[in-house]
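The records we work with from here on pair a chain with its fold. These numbers are not coordinates but entries in a learned vocabulary of local backbone shapes. To see the layout at work, look at the sequence and tokens printed below:
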Amino acid sequence: MKKSNIKILHVLIGMILAASLFSCTPKPELRALIVTGQNNHNVTNSTAAIISILDKAEIFTVFIETSPGQGRDMSGFIVDFTPFDVVVLNYTGDAWPEETRNNFVSYVENGGGVVVVHAANNAFPDWKEYNEIIGLGGWGDRDENSGPYVYVKDGEIIRDNSAGRGGNHGPQHEYVIEAFQPEHPIMKGLPAKWLHTKDELYQELRGPAKNMEILATTFAAEEFNGTGRDEPALFTISYGNGRIFHTILGHAGGEDLFFPAMECAGFITTLQRGAEWAATGKVSQRVPEEFPDETKSVRWKYFEPMDIGIISEKIKEYEIGKSTSCFIALKDFIAENSSNEVTIDEYHDMILTILSSGSASKEGKKVLLKEFSWMATEAYRSVYEKLISDEDIKNEALFALEILEY
């Protein structure tokens, strides 16, 4: 890959989806931004899962901001949150630049919606405003100075200021989610109790817990190294004029091949409803008929773990109206491997193969020409020139050629 192309990758990476990836698809009314790029979990597949889940709700247009990899220069990671109705946090890692931090706080204060997914509550233990926005957090050397433990005992909310660590979980297992505020818009119509699929059960979280409302709890059983108390599982926070929905559910381990926690019908439904509520203060989505009860969990395979083979096949088959998660996953892989020229060459080969294929979808080729031409090398020129003869994609091929000239 050209050094110049590697250099501009981080400048353009946040613009890819904001350009025209969705321009040919009818846009739902709500704009959701997923912030990702670093995580102590499988960030690529967890992001793909969240994209697919929000896509299936059919009320969100999904965008993504991907940070540089851990330990890399973060100074260019400047995010403007204002165009979005809801920001979904799937990030824990290096500190954001001050401008991005200020933009985020201002966005929430002025009414922006936020969804905190699982390990995003591990992030930024020393950022005061962030911890007030998420309510409770774990790990990162959090302790009694971070705020109280919050849990439920005999139907009463307990704020426990005793000393101790912030954040813990035992081995993964299925556990029951129990409604605490069943009339809240996110919870209304859901069963009083339902069995969540195998997941980490976050407990002993602690933080400012200001303006926090617990929607559902889960019992951290001692047989799974739990606290023996009802821990918050789903909760909301208000910060300024902003609404925040926080779910402890949704583990996707770094080496896992399957992600039952993110395929749980309960996790998916509450994430969709929580995102809509954070964006609007209301929930219009119906509770699905296929839903877990107290004794039986339900898994929906809403997404596939992405690899280069799956991405290639999805792009070849892409048509207007289908999920764009394959392009988003490709963007993420490129960002994560921007300094690995061998891997980047594999992505070049894949793109060139698709563009040269007579059987690949023309709509998929259009997206590659419009959204990935910034990374092209001279090897693309002859392919672009041949595509000009195809009237269906002539304009996109000309556009890509113009980009190649810069």
Observations:
- Residues 26 and 321 are 8 Å apart (CA to CA).
- The longest helix spans residues 265-280.
- DSSP finds 13 helices and eleven strands in the chain.
